[in-house]
Amino acid sequence: MILVTSTRLRIFDHLSSDFIDAMDVLLKRRAQLIIDCIGLPKRGRLLDLGGGPGRYAMEFKKNCPQLEVFIFDLSLDCT
Asked: 63 or 50, which is more confident?
């Protein structure tokens, strides 16, 4: 068992926030590369299997507002 003190928890929260921000920037760049490589239809439906928090799906939707985007993930991280 690991005991986490409030000081360690605050440090972890700060590092976690920085990590999430960095991953968000990286995923936005990757999403744009995917869009550039394969293209996306202007209309239709897109299913993001294992979409996690939905970062890719959000970027695809921003790029193609008429696209219906669905995320399927077993985690509780979807927003």
From this structure: 63
Q: Which residues contact 43 (CB under 8 A, 6 or more apart)?
A: 64, 66, 67
pTM score > 0.85 for this model?
Answer: no
Q: What is the rounded CA–CA span in Å between residue 44 and residue 66?
A: 7
Count CB neighbours of 18 within 10 A. 10
Q: Are 47 and 73 in contact (CB under 8 A)?
A: no
Of 24, 64, 59, 61, give the one whose Cα is nearest residue 41. Answer: 64
Average pLDDT, stretch 47-65? 86
